[in-house]
Amino acid sequence: MVLVFIRSVVIFIALLIFMRLMGKRQIGEMQPYELVVTLIIADLACIPMQDTSIPLAYGLVAILAVFLLHQIVCMIDLNFEKLKTVVSGSPNVVINKNGIDDTQLKKNNLDVSDLIESLRIEGYFSLDAVDYALYEAEGTFSALPKKDYQNLQTSLPVVIVDEGKFDEKNVALTQKNRAYYLDILKEHGCNNLKRVLVMTVDGNGRVYLQKKGEKYEVFTLDWQETLW
Amino acid sequence: MIKTIVSILISLGLITGLSVYELYYVNDTFSFFRQAVLSLYDKTEAGQATYEDGTAVQLFWERKKRYLHIWLPHTSILEVDYQLYEAVGYLYVHDFESALPKLEVVLGMCENIPQAYRLSIENIF
Questions:
Q1: What chain A residue is nearest to B69 in terms of C-alpha separation?
Q2: Interchain pair A54, B73: CB under 8 A
Q3: Which residues of B touch A (CB under 8 A)?
Q4: Which listed residue, of A126, B29, B79, B122, carries a Cα 20 to 30 Å from A28's Cα?
């Protein structure tokens, strides 16, 4: 029994560490330790239930061990603020007044397209429609919209450059070519495509451009017609 | 908070209690059983063991293994069964030479099985 207990503790801690290292991408509306408990408990119950050669006591002790660890982590979560950050993580602000914070994104194994997807799910289609956006410790996404954000999203923005790479499909959608966008980037002080964190454009020619480590800028292209 | 602490203490108490009892029970059972097999081994070596001696050890094992099933994987217990039953079978036909290696295996198991469930680094990992 003591072996089962210690093995359960080792696996629980290992899973918790790996869940934390994997970042918020792997978690969905659960604290990391809650996800670990959910992952372990199902197997703990099933294996001794199906395999009659394993004493039921092994499963019961392992479940008891997981329950004990859950209670300990719950107590830490409620009473020890610093340890709580280690065990459960903390919210990460991924969009602030300067635009996207790619360091925070990378810390959670997320990229710009994941962020854009999260924004769209929340109903914000333009990157500059929000002042702040953050991933909570349990992986859910929250955003604080700008006052007049409805006016900023009259047409769906598409990603033209995502972390230094052109999205050819979207470039074609805008009926332009790479050279056209490279010229625009040059005009805005960006000679190296790899320096671009994200560039989106909507059907009205409204561009959101953010270079790595710099504040974002928004400008409108001189398009004669609305494309979509 | 108090409820959480109480549940932690109860769980810890249960796990500690079960672990200590298991260690004690498994060691004790195999220690007694080893003594019985050892005396059967000595008798077999001297050519004096009877089928009744063998069945007496077998009966002792049967009684003990009922509760061992709670603590040990059934496959470990099954291995002892096989070897012991074969040894008793050889005793029935007075084939002491064939019975001895089987009893030796059982003696080895009496030492190895409790060790496999003892608290040690190699057993944890």
A1: A55
A2: yes
A3: 1, 4-5, 7-8, 11-12, 14-15, 18-19, 22-23, 69-75, 117, 119, 123-124
A4: A126
Task: Give the pLDDT confidence of A18-64 residue by residue, as tens digits.
Answer: 888 877 666 666 788 888 888 888 888 788 788 888 888 888 888 99
pTM score above 0.80: no
Chain A residues with a Cβ under 8 Å from any Cβ in chain B? 1-3, 5-7, 10, 52-55, 57-58, 61, 64-65, 67-68, 71-72, 74-75, 78-79
Task: Write down the architecture of domain A92-220 according to CATH.
Answer: 2-Layer Sandwich (3.30)
A226 CB-near residues (< 8 Å, 6+ apart): A155, A203, A204
d(CA A228, CA A108): 34
- Min Cα separation B26/chain A (Å): 11
Residues near A228 by beta carbon (within 8 Å), at least 6 away in sequence: A155, A156, A173, A203
In 3D space, the residue among A154, A153, A170 whose CA is nearest the CA of residue A162 turns out to be A170
Q: Do B4 and A61 touch (CB under 8 A)?
A: no
Of the candidates B55, B53, B58, B50, which has an alpha carbon nearest to the alpha carbon of residue B33? B58
Confidence check on the interface: ipTM exceeds 0.90, yes or no: no
Residues in chain A: 228
**A107-134 tens-digit pLDDT:** 888 899 999 999 999 999 999 999 999 9
Structural domain boundaries in chain A: 2-88, 92-220
